[in-house]
Amino acid sequence: MRFLIVRTDIRTAADNDIAAAWAGGGLLRDETTTPEPRRQIVHAEDRDAALLLARALSTVGSVRSGRQRVKVLPLDEPAPVHPEWWKITGT
Fold this sequence. Notes:
Helix content: 25-40%
Shape: flat
Distance between the termini: 27 Å
Number of strands: 3
Order of helices and strands: EHEHHEH
Mean pLDDT: 84
């Protein structure tokens, strides 16, 4: 499975926006409609490589200080669950 490792800026939120999202049960940030600005993008071919790259990007000063974050995103769809598994678990 291929992975995308992204270093992004963290958007700040005002206290009243946080309180409104908390009270209304809504989302404060929706990455599908307004993703955070990307600073760096790296591809990896397997999970171990993706996590190694993410650890390396996490050493950047702005990530360590909390102004940016590192995300590891799978690019391929996960393998389907084998039909026999449902029979084994009974669910």
